[in-house]
Amino acid sequence: MTTSPRSEPSTVAGEREMLEGWLDYHRATLASKCEGLDDAQLRQLSVAPSELSLLGLVRHMAEVERGWFRNTIADEKADGIFFDDADPDGDFHTGENDTYAEAYAVWQAEIAHAREVAAPAGLDDHGAGRVSRHTGEPYNLRWVYTHMIEEYARHNGHADLIRERIDGATGE
To answer: How many separate domains does the chain show?
Structure first.
């Protein structure tokens, strides 16, 4: 499965274009870390006792996209895809029948939906969904974009290490 090449975000863009550029860059980075590996390699865990795998990270980011854009911005109240109350970390718990093709398709569908949900909203608009458990305040789209960039950046660091452990590949 091939992915689209990563593009460096503009260095002179306005705020929204900059945020969307960095989010897309990090989405493409995670996809690039999975390229060229088979399903068995993508299910390999980083190192005990961690349950992180590249396939698990893709599934997790599908859930993160879903949670922040569907449930927080659009207030859709969508259930988890790969997890439930019985297995709250189910996105990371991959089995022999779980494939990258399936996870990638779900992830890309959630990204497409996130773009649809965000397109008509302004950066200061907040969703009707969840509020901060710390402050009780709603999340605006700017906060969600910034959090998503942080979430991808953190997990892309994990993906770098997992990929290097699998086949020695390193890089940006």
So the answer is: 1
Q: Which residues pair with 87 in a beta bridge?
A: 84
Q: Kindly report the pTM of this predicted structure.
A: 0.94
**Domain span holding position 128:** 15-167
The answer to whether residue 4 scores a pLDDT higher than 70 is no
pLDDT at 1 over 60: no
Question: Is 7 among the domain residues?
Answer: no
Q: What is the mean pLDDT of the chain?
A: 94
Q: Quickly list DSSP for 32-83.
A: HHHTT--HHHHH--SSTT----HHHHHHHHHHHHIIIIIIIIS---PPPSS-
Inside any domain, residue 56? yes
